[in-house]
Each structure stands twice: as C-alpha cells, then as structure tokens.
Amino acid sequence: MSRPATPSQAVILVGGEGTRLRPVTSRVPKPVAPVVERPFVAYILDDLARHGVARAVFSSGYLAAAIEAEIGDGAAYGVAVDYVVEDEPLGTAGAIANCAPKLDDGPFFVFNGDVLSDVDLGAFAAVHGEKGGMATIFLTAVADPRRYGLVQLRDDGSVADFLEKPGEWEGTALVNAGVYVLEPEILDLIPRGRLFSIERGVFPKLARAGSLYGYVDHGYWRDIGTPESYLQAHFDILERVVRTAVGDDMGDSYVYVSPSATLGTAARIVPPCYVADGAAIASGARVGPLAVVGAGAVVGEGASVVESVLQAAVRVEPHADVSRSILVRESRVGAGAQIHAAVLGEACDVGAGNQLAAGIWLAPGTVLADGCVGFREQFDARES
Ligand code: GTP
Predict the structure, then answer these.
(1) β-pair partners for 293
(2) Architecture, CATH, for domain 9-228
(3) CATH 2.160.10.10: which residues of the chain?
(4) pLDDT of 69
(5) Does ligand 1 come within 6 angstroms of the Cβ of 39?
C-alpha cells in the first residue's frame, strides 16, 4: 500500500479535566497550563510545525474558551488550528470522531494534549506506511507502567496485546505514549455522540484483527498529568534533556533572564534557571538551580527558590524558602515561610512564617493567616 510520507493534519485531544494535576488545572486547562512560561500545547505545535504538519484540530470541552483564547488560530506557532468543542466529554475515541468533519480524507496524527516528547514524526509515519495497519501507536518504555496502557508486540511489530492501566505489574514495559497515526477508516469504528475510549474500545479490536502496530522510540517522553511530572517537565526543559525552543534560547549557559527582569545587588541566579519578563529578584535572593520565575513574579530579599516553579505574578516575600514546589499564578508566600514539596493554587495567600511540606496542596484562593501551619519532621504521637 502506498501512503503519503507524513500526514499533514493532526487531532489534539485537549478536552479532559486534568483532575490529577489539580490545583494547577483548577482554573486553567492542562493543555494551556504554563510550562516554562508557554502554554503547554505550544511545545506540541512546535513539533508539528517542525515536521511539516500544517493543520491541527483541537478537540476540547473542559474550559474550552480558555484554550482558544490562548492559542487562537495557531499562526504564532506555524500551524493552522481549528476547534471542535464537546458539550459532554466523549472520551478519547468519541472526541476524535467528533473532529471528522474538520479532517481531510487521509491519515492523521492524534496527540494526547499532555505529551512532551521529541519523537521523530517523520520516522513514525514512515513505519505506519510500511506496516500498512489501520493504526500505529508510538510506544515508549517506562519503569512503572501501571498507570498507562501496556502493549506487547509480535516480532513483526504488530500489537499482540493491549492492556489498559493494569494496576499490578513489575518491571519496565512498553506503554502507549499517547500519540498515534490513524487511517480515516478508524472513524467508522467509533459510535457518534457518546462516551467511547480509543484505548478500551478501538485498540483491542484492531489488535485482534492484526491491524494495529507499534512504533518504539527510546527518545525523550513524558506526560505532564501529575504535579510531579509537571514539575519534572520544567526541569527537563531547563536542563535541555528534551529539545525545545526554550532550551535553544537558553543555550549553553542554561540561564535565561529577560531583559525586562530586574536583579538586585548580590541576587544569585544558579543555572539552570529561567527568569521571565518583568520579574524582580531582590538583593541577596537565590533563585535556582531548576527554577522558573514567571512574568512579573517577585522574589524578595534573602529569599530562596530552588527546584520550583513560580508562575506569573507570584510573590515570594523576604527570607521565605521555596523548594520542589509549584506556585500557581498570583499566589503569595509571606516573609520567612517555608514551602517544600507543595502546590499552591491560583491566588493562594500563605501568611508569614507558615511551614508547608510533604505533598500538601492548597485549592485556589486559600488564605492562611501568619504562622498558623507548622511541620515537625520527627513528630511521633506515641509517648515513649
Ligand atoms: P485526568 O483527569 O488527570 O486523568 O486527566 P485528563 O482528563 O487529561 O485525562 P487523560 O490524561 O487520560 O487524557 C489524555 C488526553 O485526552 C488529555 O490530553 C485530555 O485532555 C484528553 N481527553 C481525555 N478525555 C477526553 C474527552 O472526553 N474529550 C476530549 N476532547 N479530550 C479528552
């Protein structure tokens, strides 16, 4: 079968609620949650543009208007973007089928809207063309595959077995990386207008028919669906483990400081580090390694921000310590507070001297008065 080398169109699934990434996604949908100061899906659009994929249809639902407001017609990213909005979630397959009227006749890519990778889409499409199946799945090896779709391949590259989120599993395995090449005939296998999953409803059926193939790529891959993974995606971009435009801009210094940012005397910027437009780092503050300071964010005198993301307009007041944390836009950390391994939702206000640790997260708008939360590492309720 002869097929065009690389499809020129893609569907990007951006309609999920992103529940696991709350409170980052409480007010901003995951696909446009900022990742190193860009809406996440911009990284996918860069990838499409680089491989000559000219059109993308966004399949949205949850907070759809916020996605469209951010990405618009895609001109800024070199891809023509169109939108199909669901009234009710249709699941991954229902959402793809819903885009059918916007697709040209021919194969197309599908991306989960939370995948960061530098997969070679040209090589992927070439394997799809060679094998001649109805669908080819990009597969990646992960150490703990339990929250993914597990895939077993035959020697000819066809999928023998597709096991969605197996719960129990030991050791590394190939998993569904959330990027596919599909032939348009797939659309005939999907019932219209109701919840239907491609992982559960379509792929097992194609595997049984011998028409589903895997494309194994051992390059960079991560989904940004949990706070740990979202934070790690920032680190990977800053460390240039994955190739991105942001990393290219940082270059070998692994530092970007916007010309409109201000740095006080003896402010320390420790690479890798990204300081966005209009941010202010006061004197004696330390930012980095592995820190992002968002647009207009402020780090006060003597404060420290390490392995953390401050989104736009966050304020970290003097002598506060922030480590391994995500501070969503407009949140404030009062003087001398210590924030470790925590996620603060939009516009949280943590008063001076509080101590937050151990995976705690605050819903948007939470207010903690000065000195009302503490943390004792060695606390043991039993009296000896
Ligand atoms: P969680 O709630 O944390 O599981 O996140 P999620 O809602 O994003 O679900 P998941 O990560 O499994 O979804 C993978 C991709 O498919 C994401 O990019 C979602 O936006 C998208 N997606 C999931 N369900 C739907 C749906 O019903 N409709 C559309 N259009 N997209 C969906």
Answers:
(1) 275, 310
(2) Alpha-Beta Complex (3.90)
(3) 254-383
(4) 97
(5) no
